[in-house]
Fold each of these.
Amino acid sequence: MSAKILSQTYGKRAEHFDNVAAKDLLLTMERKKSNLCVSVDVTHSQHFLDVIDAVGPYACLIKTHIDIIEDFEPSLITRLQDLSTKHDFMIFEDRKFADIGNTATLQYSKGVHKIASWAHVTNAHSVAGPWIIPALASVGLQLGRGLLMLAEMSSKGSLATGSYTEATVRMAREHRDFVIGFIAQRRMEGVGLNASSDIVPPEDEDFLVLTPGLQLDVTGDHLGQQYRTPKEVVLEAGCDVIIVGRGIYGKSEHIDVQSTASLAEKYREAGWSAYEERLKKYSSES
Ligand code: BMP
C-alpha cells in the first residue's frame, strides 16, 4: 500500500482528482468527518426516506438500489435530493451496469429512474469489456458524475478475482476522467501493472476504494455475504469508504429512528477512528 497516498487526508487527496464527483465526495468526507456510506436496501418509499433522514447526519454518501422500491414515483427523487441538501451527503446508485455500451447509456439516462439525473456516483461491472466506461461517460461526465468499477466483490465465491480484477483496474486507468475508483476489498494502486499495458500510472496514482461487507459483530449472512470490521477494512486493507447496510438499519420493515441513528453514529465513529489511526501510521512511514 502506498504510504504516499495513505498518509494524506481525504481533503488533501481531493487535489488528486479532476472529476467533480470525486472531489466533492472527498471534501464532504473531510467536512463531515465521515467515511461512512449507508446502503439503504429497503423496499418502501417512506421507510427509505425515514432511514435516510435518521442516518443522514453521519454519512458522507447514501447508497441506493432504486429498482427495489415497490411504490416508486419520480417525486421520491426530489425528496431524496432534499435530504441530501439537508444533511450534506452525496448519492450513489448501486446500479452495477453490465451491458453493451449503447444499452448501458439508455439504462443510465432513460426509463423510469433516469439515474444520471440525480446519482452523483454509480458503478459498473467490467464483464462486457472496456466500452462500458466511455459509454456511461458520454452521459455522466457533462453532469459532473463519477463511476466506480467493480474490481472485487464481498460475496463468497465471487469470480471477480485475479486477472479479472487486474483487467478491471487497467480499464479504469485509461479513463481517469470518469472512473474515480473501485468497489473492492483492498487498495488497487499498482494492480495489473505487470501485464502489457500502454498506460504507465503516475507514482502517486490515487483511486478511491469503496468497500461493502461490513458489520461490527457479525461475520456473514445466510446468502454468501461476508463481513469485516471498519478497522480491518480501513486500517488494515487501506480502503477509503465503508459501506454499511443491515448493520445499521436492521431487518425490520419499520424503523426505530433512535437505534438507527445511534448505529450510524457508531459506524461513523469506528470508520473515522480507523482512518485517523491509518493517517498516523502512514505519516510516520512516509
Ligand atoms: P449489507 O451491509 O446489508 O450486507 O449490504 C451491502 C450492500 O452492498 C448491498 O446493497 C449490496 O448490493 C452491496 N454490495 C455488496 O454487498 N458487495 C459487493 O461486492 C458489492 C456491492 O455493491
Amino acid sequence: MRDGLNMDRQEIVQWLKCSPGEELDSLREKADQLRRLSVGDEVHLRGLVELSNICSRNCSYCGIRRDNLSIKRYRIKTEEVLRCAHKAVKFGFGTLVLQGGEDPGLTKEFISDLILRIKTETDLAITLSLGERNVDEWQEWRKCGADRYLLRFETSNKDLFHRIHPPQEGQPQCDRVAMLKTLQALGYETGSGVMIGVPGQSYDDLARDIELFAELGLDMIGVGPFIPHPQTPLGMKENVKMAAEQVPNSVEMGLKVLALARIVCPGANIPSTTAFATLDRKSGREMGLCWGANVVMPNLTPVEYRKLYEIYPSKAASTETPEQSRDAALIQIKHLGRTPGRGRGDSPTHLEQLTKPIRKEG
Ligand code: SAM
C-alpha cells in the first residue's frame, strides 16, 4: 500500500470495494499502526452535550429536521450545561462538545455567555458543532474562547449535497468547504466528515470525500454510516435516487472509511462515532477504535433531553445516564489495552500548524 497522500482516487475506490480477507486486514493493520505512531494509545473522551433539537433546516436525512412534527422540541438552559461541564471535569474529560440543530434561539449572545462561563469555571476545551452560522458569530465565539468547530461537509458531491441539504428559503446554496476554510482562518481546530451510504452516493464520490479530508488538512474527522429515520424523506424513501454504483450504509464500509481517513490524515483526532455503536451495539465502538479511531464521545446530555435528540432511530446510549456512558467507554478502552486520554487532547495536526504561518482563508 502506498502512503496516504500518494493514494490516487482509483486506489481509494479499490480499498472501498475490497472484500473481507487478508487484503482488507492489511488496511486495518496499517490504519491502526499509523494511529499508534501519530496519536498514540490514549483514547480521548469528549463529553457531548446536545444543546437543542430545534432546527430551522430541512435536511432530508436528519430526524430533527424542521418538518418533523412528531418530536417534542427542547432547548437546554445555561445552568444545565454548566452542570454537564462540571460533570465532565469530575469524570476527568478534557473537552466539552456542544452540539445542536440550527436553532435561532441559540443566539450569538447565548453561546458567547455559555463559552465564557464554562471557561471561567473550568479548564475544559470547547468544541462547537452548531451548523452553518455566520462569520461574525464564529469570530465572537472564538474570541470568547471556543477552541474547535465541527461541520461535516456530508458529501463532496455538490448536487447530492444540495438535494439532501436544501438551502434556507430565499438563500443561496451554501458552500461548507468554504466555511471550513473560514473556520481554519479564524484559528479553530477544525473538523469535518461525511455520512457513508447516503442514497445517491457513489464509490467515486466517497473516494473524493477522503481526498478532500487530506486537501483540507483536517484536525478532526467524524464519519459514520447513514441510518434512515422513518420521519424523513430519505427514511420514507421519497424521491430517493440511488447511485449507479451505490455505496452501502454498512458498518464494514464505515470502518474502511475510518481507516482511510486515518491513512490520509494521520495526525487527526478521529472519533468512533455513535452511528457505529448504534448499528452494532455490542462491538461497533470498539471496532471503530481498532480501525483508526482515537476518540470517543460519552453523552452527558440530561436523560430527559437525550431521547429527544433523535437524529436517527434507536440511537445508542439514548437512555443511559452520563455515568453509564462514561463507564461503558472506560470498560471498552481498557478491554482494548488502551488508556483514557489526559488533558485537552488537541490534534497533532493542529499543534504542528500553530508553529507555521497562519492559514489564509481562500
Ligand atoms: N446542525 C449541526 C450540523 O448540521 O452540523 C449539528 C447537528 S447534526 C444533527 C450532526 C450530524 O448528524 C450531521 O453532520 C450528520 O452527518 C449526522 N446525521 C444526521 N442525520 C443522520 C442520519 N440519519 N444518519 C447518520 N448520521 C446523521
